[in-house]
Design a protein that fits this description.
Oligomer: single chain
Helix content: 40-55%
Number of helices: 9
Radius of gyration: 19 Å
Length: 289
């Protein structure tokens, strides 16, 4: 283990965890509306100390080379405030019902398994909310957090939204398949960074892309529905359940069918990001180079 990894494990990660617990408890003591507002303001104040902003600016330059520096900085400021608001809202996820509008429920089939594909837009932790309206749990996959304390406070406690929250990997894959086989609902944030997958254009540039939505749709003959979330104002949101993704005919080889499905999904999510760039999570290395 390198010195950097030792420092991260025994110093940086515990500090991150302690800060996460303290912020969670602090925001829990506030009303949802005020907590969201304050989280956004605090994020803008402290954001200059975070090196991840450099990654975000590199990403913005890659995707919007035609924009002036000030315009890209404005998008970054909006994205930072959105992240802060989402952090302030996190302890209140089960109390935001009156602030959420859902459209497109009629696009869903009845009594059939469904794969929702969503993205890191607005407060993506609210994307399972349609399960409340449908009175069905929405199983979702997440990437395990590095800091054990953060993992404990954010993931190990019971979710206020219906459905299991399972770390990605072998256990997550098994749980997804069993959920689909039993006619359940699963949700995948399909714009997450990957070291594996297939290379497909995302926002105009090649990026490793997961294939699990396409694989399961083909194998289990279930529908994929893009699920878009938009922050309207403050802690008010609109969730749009779009019409199903068309699965290519069986006359094509499965490998090509998978690629066509994921290209369609990436194009749809790219359009959402272009529509609301200040609500997307620009701080991860989505494009490795």
């Amino acid at each position: 283990m390198t010195i950097k990894k030792l420092i991260d494990k025994f110093f940086v990660e515990p500090i991150h965890g302690i800060i996460t617990v303290l912020l969670f408890l602090f925001f829990s003591s506030l009303s949802p509306k005020f907590s969201s507002w304050l989280g956004g303001k605090l994020a803008k104040i402290i954001s200059p100390i975070f090196p991840q902003n450099k990654i975000a600016m590199q990403n913005l330059k890659l995707i919007f080379p035609e924009l002036a520096l000030d315009e890209r900085k404005k998008i970054l400021d909006e994205a930072i405030e959105n992240l802060g608001k989402s952090a302030g809202e996190y302890p209140h996820l089960g109390k935001l019902n009156k602030y959420i509008e859902v459209t497109g429920i009629n696009n869903l089939p009845k009594n059939k398994p469904i794969i929702f594909v969503a993205s890191h837009l607005a407060n993506w932790e609210l994307t399972p909310y349609p399960g409340v309206i449908l009175n069905k749990p929405v199983m979702r996959i997440y990437r395990k957090l590095n800091a054990p304390l953060s993992e404990w406070i954010l993931r190990k406690r019971p979710s206020p939204l219906p459905g299991d929250v399972v770390p990605k990997g072998r256990i997550g894959a098994i749980k997804m398949m069993s959920t689909i086989k039993s006619g359940g609902l699963i949700l995948i944030l399909s714009d997450q960074r990957l070291n594996t997958g297939i290379k497909i254009k995302f926002l105009g540039h090649q990026a490793n892309t997961l294939v699990s939505p396409a694989l399961m749709a083909i194998k289990f003959n279930c529908q994929i529905h893009p699920l878009q979330i938009i922050r309207k104002q403050g802690c008010r949101f609109k969730i749009i359940i779009h019409k199903k993704i068309i699965v290519p005919s069986k006359k094509f080889p499965n490998k090509q069918r998978i690629k066509l499905i994921m290209e369609n999904i990436n194009d749809i999510i790219s359009s959402w990001v272009i529509e609301n760039p200040g609500q997307w999570f620009w701080h991860h290395r989505r494009w490795k180079n």
